[in-house]
Specification:
- This protein is an alpha/beta fold and about 625 residues long.
- The protein folds into three domains: about 300 residues, ABC transporter transmembrane region fold, CATH 1.20.1560.10; about 160 residues, P-loop containing nucleotide triphosphate hydrolases (Rossmann fold, 3-Layer(aba) Sandwich); about 70 residues, P-loop containing nucleotide triphosphate hydrolases (Rossmann fold, 3-Layer(aba) Sandwich), CATH 3.40.50.
- About 60% of the residues lie in helices and about 10% in strands.
- Strands 6-7-8-3-9-10 form a six-stranded mixed β-sheet, with helices on both faces.
- The longest helix is centred in the middle third of the chain and has 42 residues.
- The model has no long low-confidence stretch (mean pLDDT about 80).
């Protein structure tokens, strides 16, 4: 990604304002606590500065004991009150700001859950999200940085406003006419010149720092690539699922080229090392030097005026402290504004992701919850092409099946079987044709309502590191009796009886050291129990047993056929022998249904695709 150097300040602030509005909408307490904390912490230091100046002034002039006592008591009381309120605000702010990373992730996760599945399934979506996370995790850019930039910006504004109130008299106080040449400091043009010099120096320092920071945005591609390499190869040893391969093939040696490569972006000969030695380092050094010059100008001007008799010693403390805060606030403002402009480039990617449109029609009809489960589904001349693809994944599919039927879908890899299921469940919409439920186009039904009539065990199903019961119920509210019954029906009863905490046992050890690891076959049984628990009229098994041997797969399918009862069951399998019991078998080839019929009918057609597949598999099980 290249930095848009031509981005205007107006555009940059517009993007940042949209980002802070997004954060406020998602987490209002967090933003409000930050705002109040900023106002309080930026203004309260001036109370101490003002009272300290009065005490010093009194000590250097009249030294009235009563006045000093009152000033000290007021100072102590105000300090105690400020400290108390500061502690309460800080506690509120810290509690609301905790887990900032996860609060940003929640926004991205919510978008993914609300997004059309066809967009979720698009690799471009995940490439974009990966870039956003790399920007955030590597350099802290993007949404994560917004709240801190606004914190710095607002803090600087209130700091400047508070400091100005204690600084104005520095420029309005007059040097006595008897001070000789020092009276020039009363001249309006001289005062204006001093103010201009102070502001110029104050602006230059953060501008130089921002210029140095812009090199990160310019070279974000190199930064992200190195960060991704580190994130993968640096943690290779932590990945349990590849531990065996790493050791057998000494794949840890693959990491060496990245460990010893000094030309990597973060290494001693990398691009950022060269920039640090060159322009970035020089700009940062110049920024620091200019900041020192700014402090020197403040001290010289205040001390000369006091020396000339414009005010007493006590006011020196007030003016130096307040004007230093003003210049520091201005510097912080420029720095924050510059950082916001640099960050706007990364925020554009964030909103490119968040603005991915939903194009699927959601529908409004309610799916009738029929007790007799009398549903009929029909694919009518359905074709589907993935976004950006040149060829159809499915072409001219016509299938009709009713409640209680057992339909097997078979075919070689890439023949369109899983795409067929995803269209049936309306994860995708057809490119051509229509899918009907009881004679009505499924696009007219309420989207979520329609999906509730399906229980699917996908081939790449996932279990969570939560309790067994939560995995079965897909939620925290569990009908324990039903969950146990479903697990027993799925063949998990024996293992369940061995678990000390029953369905309250955690799976895996991510969150509970006493969690249990389950085998692939046991995980499949839990996934099947989850499908049974949902009690939907349509049950689909999309090759969830592909890792099992044919006999074990046939056993699970046969048992599940009894479990399905009056439900409509659809089975997808590479192994044709597993689906012999089905009422009908649909044979897919190159995205089309080339045959339909029972096992005996299809195997009798010696010229058909099913016969070819059956005999290709049968040769491995015959002498």
């Amino acid at each position: 990604m290249k930095n848009k150097q031509g981005m205007s300040w107006r555009t940059a602030f517009k993007i940042n304002n949209r980002a802070i509005s997004l954060l406020y909408k998602a987490h209002p307490q967090m933003v409000l606590s930050k705002l109040i904390s900023i106002i309080w912490s930026s203004l309260t230091p001036y109370v101490s500065i003002y009272l300290s100046a009065l005490i010093i002034e009194e000590l250097s002039t009249s030294r009235n004991p009563e006045t000093l006592k009152n000033l000290v008591l007021i100072t102590l009381a105000s300090s105690a009150l400020i400290a108390l309120i500061s502690a309460l605000i800080t506690k509120w702010n810290n509690s609301q700001s905790a887990g900032m990373y996860f609060k940003c992730e929640q926004i991205f996760t919510k978008k993914l859950l609300d997004m059309d599945f066809i967009s979720v399934d698009d690799t471009k979506t995940h490439e974009l999200l990966s870039q956003i996370r790399q920007n955030q995790n590597g350099g802290g850019w993007g949404l994560y940085r917004v709240i801190y930039n606004y914190e710095n910006l607002l803090y600087s504004i209130f700091t400047v406003l508070g400091g100005i109130t204690l600084t104005i008299s520095l420029f309005t106080s007059k040097v006595p006419e008897s001070s000789g040449g020092y009276v020039i400091m009363n001249n309006t043009l001289f005062i204006l010149l001093v103010v201009i010099v102070m502001l110029a120096v104050t602006f230059i320092a953060p501008s130089l720092s921002n210029k140095a920071g812009s090199y990160w945005a310019k070279n974000v591609g190199a930064h992200n690539l190195s960060n991704r390499l580190f994130g993968y190869f640096g943690f290779l040893g932590y990945k349990r699922e590849i531990a065996t391969d790493v050791r057998i093939y000494r794949q840890d040696l693959l990491c060496n080229k990245y460990e010893v490569n000094k030309d990597d972006a973060f290494r001693s000969k990398g691009i950022f090392a060269k920039l640090a030695k060159g322009p970035m380092g020089l700009l940062q050094a110049a920024s620091a030097a200019v900041s020192v010059v700014s402090t020197g100008i403040v001290y010289v001007f205040v001390c000369l005026k006091s020396w000339a008799g414009a005010f007493g010693v006590g006011m020196i403390t007030q003016y130096i402290s307040s004007i230093s805060k003003v210049t520091g606030g201005v510097s912080q403002f420029v720095s924050a504004a510059g950082d916001m402009k640099n960050n706007a480039v990364f925020l554009e990617q964030v909103f490119k992701f968040l603005d991915i449109p939903n194009t699927m029609y959601q529908g409004s009809l309610t799916v009738e919850k029929r007790r007799d489960r009398d549903y009929e589904v029909e694919f009518r001349n359905v074709s589907f092409k993935y976004p950006g693809a040149d060829t159809f994944a499915l072409s001219g599919v016509n299938i009709k099946f009713k409640v209680g039927e057992r339909l097997a879908v078979v075919g070689m890899n890439g023949s369109g079987k899983t795409t067929f299921i995803k269209l049936l469940c309306r994860l995708y919409d057809p490119t051509e044709g229509e899918i009907l439920l009881n004679g009505i186009d499924i696009r007219k039904y309420d989207y979520l309502d329609y999906m509730m009539i399906f229980s699917v065990v996908f081939q790449d199903f996932k279990l969570f590191s939560l309790t067994l019961g939560e995995n079965v119920a897909s939620g925290s509210k569990i009908n324990e009796e039903l969950a146990v019954d479903c697990l027993q029906k799925a063949g998990f009863g024996e293992r369940l009886s061995e678990m000390e905490n029953g369905i309250h046992t955690y799976l895996y050890k991510d969150y509970d050291k006493n969690g249990v690891n389950v085998s692939g076959g046991e995980a499949q049984k839990i996934a099947i129990a989850r499908a049974i628990y949902k009690d939907a009229p349509f049950i689909v098994l999309d090759e969830p047993t592909a890792a099992l041997d044919p006999m074990a797969e046939a056993e699970i399918y046969s048992k599940f056929n009894d479990i399905a009862g009056d439900k409509t069951a659809i089975y997808i399998s590479h192994r044709l022998s597993s689906c012999k019991f089905c009422d009908e078998i649909a044979v897919f080839d190159h995205g089309s249904v080339v045959q339909m019929g029972t096992h005996s009918e299809l195997v009798a057609d010696t010229n058909g695709k099913y016969f070819e597949l059956w005999n290709a598999q049968a040769q491995y099980y015959t002498a």
